[in-house]
Design a protein that fits this description.
about 270 residues; alpha/beta; Udp-n-acetylmuramoylalanyl-d-glutamate--2,6- Diaminopimelate Ligase, Chain: A, domain 1; 2 domains; six-stranded mixed sheet; five-stranded mixed sheet; about 35% helix; about 25% strand; DUF34/NIF3_sf; DUF34/NIF3; GTP cyclohydrolase 1 type 2 homolog
């Protein structure tokens, strides 16, 4: 099969036009007309992920985060990022990224995160746009199976998302929480939507220092487990692509990257 076959099917699930305006989703490097035999799913495209792909004879990397958030200013191969691009081209590896379109998609990233928390009666958190006669939202909000103290819930989040540490922003860590909002990635600017929808706690990553102050002033409790919780996408995409592989008889192999691309270590 060709890359375009995989991408065309995926874009029925998460169309590019539901991504946030300006988000560089889609083909990153290579050609969608190239033949595909082995796909690896990953959160990030980093040099170590590319080396893993080369070692496993992968010819298609499907990532959540775009590899080119910022365009290269030159092709100086002493720069690790540029060397990574050169390796991808040399080994004929196509790279495709589905970012905020995967976040916003039904049964996409934010539904996966809500499902991991076993949230009930979930709905969209922050309205983004109407496309294809559907309303698409960034983030999700729902209810826990059983209410619990915030500090206990924060510890539960550490277990669920497999993180060794997180940041808790709250005026009352002992408060009882039931209604939970979640938005994967950097969602600090959406916390007002969590307040409007009466969330007891809002979960998102990369909360900015001064935004944390604003959250406290506005009385919303926030759990910041980091950006890397989105790595849930590796196994979820593996399952989706494996199902399509069987359904459409693509005869490809799909694997999930085993590289931990979280840049932070708790010490």
């Amino acid at each position: 099969m060709k890359g375009i076959d995989l991408v065309s099917r995926f874009e029925q699930f998460a169309p590019k036009d539901i991504a946030v305006k300006g988000d560089p989703v889609g083909l990153q490097i290579g050609s969608l007309d190239a033949e595909v035999h082995k796909v690896v799913t990953t959160l990030d495209v980093r040099p170590e992920v590319v080396d893993e792909a080369i070692d496993h004879n992968v010819d298609f990397i499907f990532a959540h985060h775009p590899v080119m958030f910022r365009p290269a200013k030159n092709l100086d191969l002493s720069v690790p990022q540029n060397m990574m691009y050169a390796k991808l081209i040399k080994h004929n590896i196509t790279v495709y990224a589905a970012h905020t379109n995967l976040d916003n998609a039904f049964d996409g990233m934010n539904d996966w995160l809500a499902e991991a928390l076993q949230l009930q009666n979930t709905e969209g958190l922050s309205f983004m746009l109407n496309k294809h006669d559907k309303d698409f939202y960034m983030g999700r909000i729902g209810e826990l199976v059983a209410e619990m103290p915030l500090n206990e819930f924060a510890n539960l989040c550490k277990q669920i998302f497999n993180v060794k540490g997180l940041r808790l922003i709250s005026n009352n860590p002992q408060k009882i929480v039931k209604r939970v909002a979640i938005l994967g990635g950097d969602g600090g600017k959406f916390y007002h939507d969590a307040i409007k929808k009466h969330a007891d706690v809002y979960i998102t990553g990369d909360v900015y220092y001064h935004t944390g102050h604003d959250m406290l002033a506005d009385g919303i409790s926030v759990i910041d487990p980091g950006h890397h919780i989105e790595s849930i996408c590796k196994q979820k995409l593996l399952k989706i692509f494996s199902n399509w592989n069987h359904q459409y008889e693509w005869n490809i192999e799909v694997i999930a990257s085993k590289i931990n691309t979280d840049p932070f270590t708790f010490i």
